[in-house]
Every structure is written in C-alpha cells, then in structure tokens.
Amino acid sequence: MLRQSPLTKMATLMNPRWNGQFSCFDLVAKTDGRSRTVVQVRDIEIGGNDFVVMAGPCAVESEDQLLRTAEAVSEAGARMLRGGAYKPRSSPYAFQGLGLEGLKLLQKAREATGLAIVTEVMSEEDVELIAEYADVMQVGTRSMENYALLEALGSCGRPVLLKRGMTATLEELLRSAQIIAVAGNPQIILCERGIRTFETATRNTLDIAAVPVLKTVSHLPVIVDPSHAAGIRCLVPTLARAAAVVGADGLLVEVHPHPEEALSDGNQSLTFGEFREMMDDLQPYLEIQQAARQLRPRLVAGGIV
Ligand code: PEP
Ligand code: MN
C-alpha cells in the first residue's frame, strides 16, 4: 500500500482531482517539501535553470555518421548526444541496431565532443552493459510498461529517461516512474513524445498539456521529443518552440547527416542546417520561458515553477 502524500497546495488549487490521481505515487509526486528534482548528468543539470537539448540520430549507423552528427549538434548547442544501439523495430526485417559496436561508437563520440550519451535499453538483460557506456538510460515508448526492465533500472546507477507509452495516460507514466524510484533510482527524466489518437496527419499527437500537468504534479524534470510526435521534419522546430514556451526542461531531437539515407526515422530527422536553425530560433522562446518563471511562478500552470 502506497503512502498518500498530498500534492502541493498549488496543485490542489489547479485541479483537486489530481490529488487523488497522482499523490499515491509518493516518490515522484510533488509535495510542499519536494518541488523540484535536478538530475545531474556529468556537468549538465536537467530540471534546473538550463534548457537541455539532446540530439542525434535515431540509430547509430556508422562511425562517420555518428561522429559527424555529434560534432554538428554540439556546435549548435546540444549538450547530449542521442543514438540507439539497440532499436525496438516494429518489423523483423528493419535495421535492429549495431548493439555493442554502437555503444562503443557512442563512447568514442563522447570522448571526441564531451557530449553526454543517452541511449535506449530494451531488456533487463542489457542494463548492466548499457550502463557501462551510457550516461542516461532511455526507456522507449514500447517499454514503458516493461516492469522487469523498470525494476532492473532501479539499481543501474544511471539516470533514466522514461518515455511516455504511446497509449499511456499520465497516471500510467508516473506509475512507471514510481516503479523505478521504488526500485532504488530517483533520478528520472519524464519525456512526452506524442500519443496515438485518431489523428493521422502527424505520426503521433503531441500532448503539449502533458508538460504543465506533469510539472505541476511531479517534481521530476520533463522533456519533449518533437521528432517522434511530428513524424515529419518540417513540424519539429514548431513543436520544439511550443515545448520551450510551456516550460519543458529540454528536448530530445533526431538529427542525421543525410536524413533521406537514414536507416530509421529519416522522415522526421533534421539535417545539420535545420537543427542549427531550430536552435537559433528557439532563443526568443526560451526567454519567454525565463520571463514567465519570474513573472508568474505560481500561475503559469505550475509548469514554469
Ligand atoms: C527513439 O527515440 O528513437 C524511439 C524509438 O523513440 P520512441 O520510443 O518514443 O518511439
Ligand atoms: Mn527514432
């Protein structure tokens, strides 16, 4: 039986129903005594005052592809490199990832650029190995309810980036976060990456309200993945700007040297030039986020606190 801890008064004021819905997840719910967790990844603080951008290819494909991308995203202002070495593919015929070889390339890219590494783990059997190479362990949308994996991540010694299941409610997302925390790891970053709805014009529907709701009811950092939400590269910068304005703590963005040749998710991957432009164009929106924090820290949906 979980201990019930009332959410902050602010959250109660926002929507009394949220107390019953979320306060049972006592290790991840916001309380008056615990309003914010800052996840430290090397010299990077996620959930603090910085907006942290994690960028890179969907999948690690080759040394040249990864190192060139790492340099380009680093120059444009990304702090972390993303790239899957173990890929959850919906077809058995699709590229499944380079596995250990991909992890070694990620390590090489970190040495070359200083970027911290976030990469996906799909099975509890791979946790120990991936934790040797990754700075942050990514749990993909399809694994949000892989309870054996969540439990194994409790003792992996690395922060976890927990993506929202594509058909999961926010309550279910926080339940999975609670499982990781109960298993011993409170270093969790939540990620809204779009959910499945009746809409087909985009790959998924970005639930932008998830950001202020999660920031109100939980003390954990919240980032947005505009790439998997959009499914198409032309929408990614716009969704990224929306994420900045509603108070997200950062982004997870797919970038590829030649998106049209990518082995996975090329349609939604930005070119180097597009990523640089996206980063430049984000600046005024990040200033809005900063201004909102100072102007109305309590009123802006709690999301900006
Ligand atoms: C990814 O980040 O490449 C990925 C597979 O994401 P998701 O789990 O959100 O589909
Ligand atoms: Mn992808």
How is this fold's topology laid out?
Blueprint: H1 9-14, H2 17-22, E1 39-41, E2 44-46, E3 52-56, H3 63-75, E4 80-82, H4 100-113, E5 116-120, H5 127-133, E6 136-139, H6 147-153, E7 160-163, H7 170-182, E8 188-192, H8 210-217, E9 222-224, H9 226-230, H10 236-245, E10 250-254, H11 272-295
Parallel strand pairs: 3-4, 3-10, 4-5, 5-6, 6-7, 7-8, 8-9, 9-10
Antiparallel strand pairs: 1-2
Helix pairs in contact: 3-4, 6-7, 10-11
Descriptive account of the structure:
With 305 residues, this protein is of the alpha/beta class. The chain has a single domain, classed as Aldolase class I (TIM Barrel, Alpha-Beta Barrel). Helix content is 37%, strand content 13%. The protein contains eleven helices and ten strands. The protein has helices at 9-14, 17-22, 63-75, 100-113, 127-133, 147-153, 170-182, 210-217, 226-230, 236-245, 272-295; strands spanning 39-41, 44-46, 52-56, 80-82, 116-120, 136-139, 160-163, 188-192, 222-224, 250-254. The strands form two sheets. It has an eight-stranded parallel β-barrel with strand order 3-4-5-6-7-8-9-10, surrounded by six helices. Strands 1-2 form a two-stranded antiparallel ribbon. Strand 5, helix 5 and strand 6 (136-139) form a beta-alpha-beta unit. Helix 10 (236-245) runs parallel beside helix 11 (272-295). The longest helix has 24 residues, at 272-295. The radius of gyration is 18 Å and the shape is globular. 52% of the residues are buried. Residues 58, 228, 254, 264-265 line the site of manganese (II) ion.
